[in-house]
Every structure is written in structure tokens, then in C-alpha cells.
């Protein structure tokens, strides 16, 4: 410590902590000299370098009070209270030490002063944390149209002026000399029709003028010297006017006019015409313009429009094979299409809802990263993450692992900034998994979306939209989390929002499904009845008649007096409370949409119309009925089913009858099973009408729904003990959909070929194998798991003939399905198979010619 202290400070410290004893006679100078010697010895022994300090004379000291009397200092913290004020050299040292302290305090205060004011800090944080917004185009479309029309009018005036005075260049001496005495071909003077559109009149006058100016080379179709009729800006303005008038023939005539004038066609003009052709899906027009007016290779925008035209021309229920072929042809030529083209093709493939198209979308994504664009952009990443919510395999509802991998790759590895759509995609993929851990991960990502990237005022850059809330509700309904669903619904209706942000039909459908999957914590039949109570706990208050009355009042009347429903913080605790709350919600929807009377649901839903933008559809009614199927009796559900569709004026669809039939197949023992049989027979008559109508019009009901409906009705019959009728129903199904229909001899499409090649018109790197792609065209069938209940009842009744038939028909469907799978695995494209044989034959001929010569080879081919 002494090595780092100045000598004067060391003397002062030693003089204070070591007072001079009374029995030792040593002067002040002697003590100071001894202290200095000790300090020098300590410095010599220390290994630390000594610091240099300014001389004491440079340190400012305190001024005297009046100049005559010195200021008496108060004792310092190291000075004993009984010590007298020091004088002489020690006092001088004390003054210098105090001056050092004051100088240090001044420096500390100077360093602690605010460099920026509050306003300056706020401005700085506003600039640093501001949200980046896209700068709109400065050119307004309306102003551009007006400017183009003005340019075209000027062109018309100039052409009319030249028509009246005739161009002097036609009779100039140079033209006469170059003509070498040849007579001028006769050119008819155009007759301008005032009723014709402006751009049509301009084109007529321009073509007539070009005919007059092409006298230098009357035999050539295209002049060697460019003939400049208009400037490039005027040509582009004329092209835009033709396109805005939806006159594509005229726009193509403008390009033809430039070609006749030996002018280089501007890229913008050709792209404008191609964009209009691709928007309407005119593939012939696009390819005609590319063949006639394109000199060099197409630009990325033009190739994108070429593929886009093929996509628009393809129906939504088919795979765009022509678009994929054009896309791969650009790759073979060494000019791959831009990334947005691959994004459009992938989005179209996923919109077809075909399993083979979804598999091709993933294969095209991996192929693009291999041959064209190794680093996708945010839009393509978002499309693929959203695709994880609808996986290829039907065994899983989503693929959250792959979605999170793509999300990490995009945000962490590639460092791309996500968008609201990206957040919605990954939230939906995690929520649709139905697993609690991934649903919680979806809510965590939603919280991260709101908390991250806030500006200086705390506003988030990613505001949740309707898709975000629907994705969260999707996760809540799959795990039965009614608390979160009610919280989201309450937050939506808290403030009156616009149509884009208000509650719609999809949100209410998810809410009703959440009520369906919700398991109430309290079950009345498991409650212990306390003896001695006058009011016994039973199910009498929840009888079928009460539920029917409350169900019928869901469209016209209020709930009973004393049972005013309220949307409270605590979720419903019993099934009866669930039904009451759902009925009140549906009644409020009917009221706000003008289909019902005044609602009794108060609390946060009172006041303004919160559900006015909800559209009453069949799937909304199906979701509302599903709550009653789960939490109400079958008798009440039947009464509500036949009433609600008539009151709202909506026709039930196939899913409506299917879900009702499956509810009948789950009827409990006792009085519910006869009710279920009666209800199922009425439903089955309606179902057959829907099924036959779909087969007649060429759009049959989904095969899996047909299976479920037939199995549900068969189970209802079995539960009521009608085994012979159930057996006849199975035979009727086998006659309508025989096992022989499962055998499929269709060939594999060429774009699904798995032959290993380095260059070809199909993906070279795939993410899906053939056994992962399900077959969407499998007709309805019955497996043993569907017939197991009937088989057990037949065994119990010792009906051997029925038992044998059940075994036979289930095995017949099983083996037919196995044969279909084997044929699909062994299938190959016919053209590629023939090309492979031709390639093998050509290779054999070439190798044999080198070895045995032509004559011997000719003999071998003849004999073979």
C-alpha cells in the first residue's frame, strides 16, 4: 500500500496513526525523516512500479478567509478528536490532501453530468427501434394512365398532321436517288374512323405511315435501317394504353409495329403484354409473344410469367404438369427461373389437396435448393412451414418437428427477419399437432411475437391478426383447453373492431369445437351424496325434457328465469353448464346476425354487436351440434338437429349426417339405443340421397366419409341386436363397392419417376419416398376393425354362415388393397420405360459395333 502513496500523504498518515510518545524525545523533523525512510524502504522492497504525481505546488489550495487569519481546519477522519490543530508542514500536507479531494469531487461531478437530454434520448431510441416499413411507389396508377393517354393523343395529332402534309422525306432527292428510278408503290390513304378507340386509330395511322416510309426496301419485310416513328417512351405508353383497355391484340400489334421498324423491343413493353396474358392464363399468347419478339434469353420476370401462365391454365384439382415441364426446361437450358416462380409452383401444388401434389411440392423445394437457389427467401420458408400444418401422410395432423427446424434455419442460421405470416405458419404447424408440448410451444412463439421487436413506445412490430388467433384456437381445441379459448374470445369482443379484426365464422367454429373437446372437472354421477340433506344431488334436474326445452329455446327464447348465463372467468364445471354457455353464445350470434331475438347473455358481450360479421354456414352449425353430441343427451341432440337447420334456413351436408350417425353409434345402454336406432334410420335415408347424388354428378362424397357412415349405421343396427340386418347391410356395401374396384392398373406419372439422373424434366433430389405418398383414389372399403363388433356378436349368436362371410369380405378387401399397393410400388412411367429400353438398345449397338463389327452385328439383330 505504501508503494502507491505519495511521500507527503504517507507522512501525514504516519503522523496521525503513530502519535509521538511522551517519553521519546524526537523532533517533528526527525519523525518525518524516519517515516520517509520507512516509506523508501517499502518502495524498494515492493515489485510494483511507483506512480508519478504532480508537484504539490500545482495542486490548488483553499483561500484564506480574509487574508490575515488562517482558516482553522476541522479534524479529518484519521485525526483523533483530542488532537490539537496541526501547524507547519503537517498542516500544509493536510491542505494539499483536501485540495486533492475537492479536485476529485469536481471531476466526479463533471463526469456524472447528463450528456443527452430526455428529448434527445427519446429521438435516438425512436430512430433505433422504429419498425421498417415498405416505401410505396411514388407513381400513382391513375396518374400514369392519364399521362399515357396524353402521350397517345399527342401521337395521334402528330400522325394526322403528317397525313395532311405528307412527309417531305418521301419526295426528297436522296430518296429519289436511292430509289434508282423505280416507281413508288401505291399506298392507300387510311380512312380514320372516329368511332374507333384511340389506340386503334393510332395503330392504323402508324401502320399506314410505316408503309409509306418503307419505300427504300419495298421487297424486304424488315428494313435494314430502323425507321423511327415514335420514341421508346411513346411506344411504351401506347402499349400500356392497349393493356389497360384489355385489348391484347392491339398491344401485340404495337410490338409487331416495333419489329417492322427494326427497333429493339423494350423489355418493359414485352413484359407488360406477357403479364396480361399470364394473368388470364393464355399460354398460347405468351408463347407466341416469346417466339416472335424475344431475341435473347428471357429475363427472370419473363420466365416467371411463362410458368405462371401454365399455372393459371391448369385446373385446381389437377397437377400442373405443363408448368413443371417448362420450369425444368429452363433449368436444362442453364437459365433457372427466379425463386418466386418456384414459390408459385409450390403454392399451387399444395392448393390442389392431392397427396401426390403435396409430395411433389416438397420434392420441388429440395430440387430448387440443389439446382437453382440454395438459400430460400422468407416467402418460400413461410410457404414450406405452412405446408407442415398439412402433411403428406394422413396418419399425422401436422409435422411440428420439421416446421421448427425450418423456423430455426430461417431465423437463426440464415438470419432472415420473419413476418407475421411466418409466425402464423409456425404457430399453426405446432398447434395442429394435438400434442400438449407443441401446443404450449405455439403459445410461447405467439408471446415472443408480441414481446419482441417493440419500438420506443412499446408497440410491437408483429401485431396478431385473425390467422394468428385461429391458429391458437386450433391448438386449444385439440387439447381441450377451454380457458385459453374463452380468453381469446373475450379479448376479441372486448373492443368493437373492424370486419377484418372481428369475430367471424371460423373463430366461432373453433370455439365450439373447444367446448366439444373440453372435459368438465365435475361429474354428477361420481359425486358422493351426503345423507341427511333435504336437497339430494341427482340427475333429475338434467332430465331429457329439460334439455330439449333449453335446446329448443336456443333459437327463439331466453333461458329459464333464475338461470341467467354469464361469461365468467371460471370455465363451466359441468356438462349442463357447458350446454347453457354454448346456447347463450349461439343465441347472441343469431341476435347480432338478425336471425334471433334478444340474447340473455350479459357481462362482457353486452352492448355493441360483437358477432355481426359471423356468417351462418353449415360447418358452423355442425360445430354447434357437436357440443350437444358430446355434452347432451341423444334425445336432445335429435330434437335440435331437425330444428336448427330449418330455423336458420341452411341445408345439411354429408358431414352433418355423418356426425349425427356416429353419435347414434355411441348410444348408451338403456333407453338411448332405441332412440338412436330411430334417429339413425331417418339420417340414413337422407345420407343415401346425398351419396347417390354425388355419384351421379361425378363428384362423389369422400371415400373415407362413406366408410365411416356405413360403419356407423351398421354399429347402430348391431347395438340394437339386429344381426341379420347388419349382415345384409355389409353385403349391400360389398355389392356397391366391390373389392375388385381396388385393383388399379394406372401408370405412374412421369414427374414422379424415381430413376437416378443428373439432368431431367423432374426433381433430381426428393424429400418424399413412394411409400410415404398416400393414394387419394382408393374407393370405399371395409377392414376387420370396422366389422369387429359385428363379428363378436355373430360369434356370440353362433351364426357360422355370417362369421364366414365376415372373414371372407374383410380378407378380400385386405388382399385387394395389398395388390393395389404392390402395383403402385412397381409402376413406372410408360414413356420413360420405352426411352430406357431404347437407350439400352442404342448402348448395346454402339458397344457391339466397336467389338465385333457391323456385319456380325447385323446378323445378330436379324436373328434376335
Automatic annotation (TrEMBL):
It comes from the Eukaryota. Residues 54-90, 537-566 are annotated as: Disordered. Residues 541-554 have a biased composition (Low complexity). Keywords: Repeat. Gene3D superfamilies: Tetratricopeptide repeat domain. Coiled coil: none annotated. This is Uncharacterized protein. It comes from Mycena sanguinolenta.
